[in-house]
Amino acid sequence: MNTSVSVLHVGDHLPLEVLSVPADGHEIAVFTVETVSRLCDGLERFAAGAFDCVVTERRLPDGSGIDAIKAVRNSDPSVPIFLCPTDHSSECVREAVDAGVTEYLPCEPDQDAYPLLATQILDAVSQELATERAAKLERINTVIRDLNQALVHASTRSEIERRVCEIISQSESYLFAWIGEHNSESNTVTGRAAAGVEAGYLEQISITTDEKPTAQGPTGKAVRTREIQVMQNVPDDPAYEPWREQALDRGYRSSASVPLVYDDALYGVLNVYADRVGAFKPNERELLSELGETIAYALDDVQMREELRRRQRAIEQAGDAIFVTDVDGTIEYVNPAFETITGYTSAEAIGRKPNILRSEDTDDDYYERLWATILDGETWDESIVNEMKAGERYHAEQTIAPIVDGTGDIEGFVAIQRDITERKQREHDLERSQSRLRVLFDQAPDGIVVHDVDGAVLDVNEALVEMLGYTRDELCSMNIADIECGIDEATLRDKWGSMDPGAMHKVEVDGRHRRADGSTYPVEVWISRIMTDEPRDRFVAFIRDITYRKHRIRQLRVLDRVLRHNLNNEMAIIRGYAETITDATPGDAAAYAREIVASCDRLLETVSKEREIVQIVSSPPHRTEIELVETIRECAERIRSQYSNGRIEIRASAPVFVDAMIDIERAIEELLENALVHNDRSPSEIRVEVTRNDDGTVSVRISDTGPRIPSEDARILTGEEQIDPLSHGSGLGLWLVYWIIEHSNGDIQVRSNSPRGNTIEITLDALS
C-alpha cells in the first residue's frame, strides 16, 4: 500500500520536489510537496491546510527557520518539523532543538541527502499518524460507545437528538454539536437539538439549501449531496463568510456536517464544531459518516416504534371491534371494543375460532364465500348477523383482510366489525313508516301528486287518478301544466321557486284542473317543498275538489243578498212608521216608537256585520302588505271623532309591516270601539302597544280600564265558541274580528288586567 505524505516546504534553496524513499525495507511513499519562500506565506498555508510535516530552511527572506519552528509549535505541538540548514554550527543546532525541531538534517543543493530526509520524514509522520490515530480512535470509540448506550435506552426522537448533541459536545475533541431539520418547502435548515459552546449561535445564523451564499456551507451541501461535508478552515475559507463572525466569536475553527440518512430518508443533519483548523482528517470523517448512519437508523427505529405505538393506541381506542387470527382462524388478539360489542373478554376469545359469534341467521354459504375470498389473498367486505355471548343478535359491517409477510405468503387475518344494529333498526323502522305512509298516500281522500321543480309528475295516489280520469302511468308521464288550467306555467314555477328549500312551507293555490274528458273543476291545493337525497328537491301537492263547496258558497251569497234586501226593505218601513208615530204621538207611545227606531238601527248594523262575515268566510284569504302603525293611527282618529270622552294612547316607535288581510283595519276599529262603548268610566282610556318580536311576528296589545269582558264574548273572540241564536248582538262584531284575524294567519288572545280592565293581543306575521 502506498503512503501519501503532504509536505510544506518553507524556503527556496532545496529542490524537495524530488523527495522519494529508497526501496530498502521501507514502504513506498508518495510525497506531495508545496513550497513557499517566505515565512509569512508558510505560516498562512500551514494554518489553512492539513500538512503531515513541515520542512524549513535556516535562512528565509523575512525571517529564519527557527522562527518557523517556534510558530508551528505554538499552533500544533505534534506535527513533525525538519530544519535543513546550509551551515552546521552548534549554535544553530542548539536553537533548533530548543525551538522543538523534530530532526536536524543539513542539506546542500548539490548533495545526495534527499533520500535520507525522505526516510526520516516518513518515519516521523508514520509515528505521529499512528499515535494521533490511536488517540483519536480511542476518543471517537468512547463517543460511539456512549452514543450507542444512549440510543439503546432512548424512546423518543427528541431524546435521541438531545443525547447525541450532549455526548459529542462533552468529548474533548469538539466544542459544539447540533442537529438540524431540513424544510424542503422553504429550503431552510433549523435547529432541533443542540449542546456545547453555543451562546445563541443558531438564533443568529441562517442556513439554506438553495443557491444562495447561505447554502454554500457544509450544512447546505450535506443536505443536497447526502454525504459528509467538512469546513477545515473557518477563519479563511470564503464559503464560510455568512457565518464566520459568529463562529469565530465562539472559538469554532473547523466544522463537519453529517447527513442522517437511512433507507433514502433524510432524518436531519448533524453538525460538529472543533476549536482547531484541519480537525477533521479522513479517518475521522469516515467514523463520523458511520456515526451518522447509526443515528439515522436509531431515529428511523424510534419513529417506527412510535408509529406502531400510535397504531396500537388507535386499535385499542377504536369504536369498532378488531381481532386478529392466524391462518387457521384461531383468534390471537382482540381489542377492547370487541369485548364491549360481543361480550367475550380477551381471555375468553383468544385461542378460539370466530365461530363463537356465529348466529343462525348466517348460513354456510356466507362462510364458504368468505374463506374462499381471504385465502385467495383478497379482502372480504360484507355485513353479517352475529350473536353475542349473552345470546343477543347484532348486525355488523365486517371487513377481513389477509396479513402477508415479506414474501407475499399469508400469515394471518385481521377483521374489523362495526356494530350497525341501531342503524338496521332505524332502517327497519323507516321501511315500516314508509309502508304506512304509502298506505295513507294511496288511501287518502284528497288527491296527492309528487313533482319536481320543473313540474314533471313523479307519483300520484288513487284519489287523483279517480278525480282526473287518467291512469297512474299516464299521469306519471305528464307535467303539472298539463293538468292545471287555472294558472299559467310561469306563475306556477314562480310559486315553487319562492318556497323555502327543505322546509314544510305550505302554499295555498286556487285553480282549476282539467280531467281526461276535457271538463274542468275547481280545486284547492296545498304545496309543500321537501328536501330529499335526490339532486333536486321534490314538491308534494294535496288537491281537494271544491265543486260542492263553491256551489254552497254561491247559495250562501244568494241567500245573504235576498235576506239583506228583504230585511233592509222591511226595516225601512218599520223605521219610517216608528218615526211617524214619534212625531205624531206624545207621551209613552212616542218613547216606544223611539225605542223601535233604535232597535231597527241596531238590527241594520248587525245585518251589515253579517254581510262582512259572509264575504270573508266565502272568499279565499287574500293577504297583502299592511303598514300596521299608520293603520292603527287612522282607526284611532276615526274613533276619537265619534266618542269625545275616549282617550287612545298609541305606543309604537317605528313603522311595522305585516302580512294580513286589508280588513285588519276593520277588526282593530271594532276592538277600539267596543273598548270605549263598554267602559263604565269617563273618560274611557285605551292604550295600544305595537312591538316586533324575535320570532318574526308583530304583537298589537289593546288594553282598557273597563269591566272584565264576559267569558262568552272572550271565547267568541278567540274562536273557542260559535255564534248561536241566543248570542247577543255584540257577539257578531267579535266574530267578525275573529274571522279577519284567522284569515290573516294571525292569533288573538284575551287577558284580564288587575285590578280591572282587559288586554286583547293580536299576533301577525311580520314582513322584513
The overall pLDDT, averaged over residues, is 84
Number of continuous helical runs: 23
Bulk shape: elongated
SSE-based structural type: alpha+beta
- Radius of gyration equals 54 Å
Specify the biggest β-sheet.
Answer: 7 strands, mixed
Beta-strand residue fraction: 25-35%
Q: Tell me the total number of β-strands.
A: 30
Task: Determine the N-to-C terminus distance.
Answer: 99 Å
DSSP helix fraction: 40-55%
Contiguous low-pLDDT stretches (5 residues minimum) are 725-729
Layout of strands and helices, then pairs:
Blueprint: E1 3-10, E2 29-36, H1 39-48, E3 53-56, E4 59-60, E5 63-64, H2 65-75, E6 81-83, H3 90-99, E7 103-104, H4 114-153, H5 157-170, E8 176-183, E9 188-196, H6 201-204, E10 207-208, H7 218-225, E11 229-231, H8 244-249, E12 254-262, E13 265-274, H9 282-317, E14 321-325, E15 331-334, H10 336-342, H11 346-349, H12 364-375, E16 380-387, E17 393-404, E18 410-419, H13 421-443, E19 447-451, E20 457-460, H14 462-468, H15 472-475, H16 480-483, H17 489-497, E21 507-514, E22 520-530, E23 538-545, H18 547-584, H19 588-617, E24 623-627, H20 628-642, E25 646-651, E26 657-661, H21 664-677, E27 684-692, E28 697-704, H22 711-717, H23 730-743, E29 747-752, E30 758-766
Parallel strand pairs: 1-2, 1-3, 3-6, 6-7, 25-27
Antiparallel strand pairs: 4-5, 8-9, 8-13, 9-10, 11-12, 12-13, 14-15, 14-18, 16-17, 17-18, 19-20, 19-23, 21-22, 22-23, 24-26, 26-30, 27-28, 28-30, 29-30
Helix pairs in contact: 1-2, 2-3, 4-5, 4-9, 18-19, 19-23, 20-21, 21-23, 22-23
